Amino acid sequence: MYTRIAAAIFALSISVYSYAQSSPEGRWTDKNNAEEYAAYMIQIAYHDLGYMGARVQIREDGTRRIFEVDPGRMYHIKAVQIVGQNGLLLEAMAGAPSVGDVYSATRMNDWVAALKSRYGKAATWGVRFDHANADATIEVKLNRDPILGPK
């Protein structure tokens, strides 16, 4: 009984996956995924430059595919809130993104990684976007306990 149910679920999932991979001509292809992935990577690159509203569309022009990019507005940091500061040195804050800077997740990740490695602070961060004003509010949470190394 369970074998039949498992086989039916497996067959259904394979058919759904195959349908999603199919081309407009009805042939299975990886080209569809490659184009969508390329559009996604272009969008991520724009996000890292502060264009959080970037949209990428793929348009056909005969046999060519054209990626049309609408970058949208550039987002800037509105506020950086540190929760649980616990004596964080001013030297550590010198490398932090500040108000007015262009928002970049990569820059935030680099700064938090530096906090963890140089100062032994366990930290996490999150962001809230205000799409109406094209700005970002960043909240960094520091743990009270230092990061413990391997024993």
What's the number of extended β-strand segments?
5
- Radius of gyration of CA atoms, rounded to a whole number: 23 Å
CATH H-tier superfamily of the largest domain: membrane protein fhac
Into which percentage range does the β-strand content fall? 25-35%
**Overall number of structural domains:** 2
Oligomer: single chain
User: Architecture of the largest domain, according to CATH?
Assistant: Roll
First-last Cα distance: 50 Å
- The residue fraction in helices comes out at 25-40%
Tally of individual helices:
4
Provide mean pLDDT, rounded: 78
Low-confidence stretches: none
Description of the structure:
It is a single chain. This protein is extended. The chain has helices spanning 2-21, 31-48, 90-94, 105-119; strands spanning 55-61, 64-70, 76-83, 121-130, 135-146. The chain has a three-stranded mixed β-sheet with strand order 3-5-4. A two-stranded antiparallel sheet has the order 1-2. It folds into two domains: 2-70; 76-146, Ubiquitin-like (UB roll). The protein is an alpha+beta fold and 151 residues long. The chain is built from four helices and five strands.
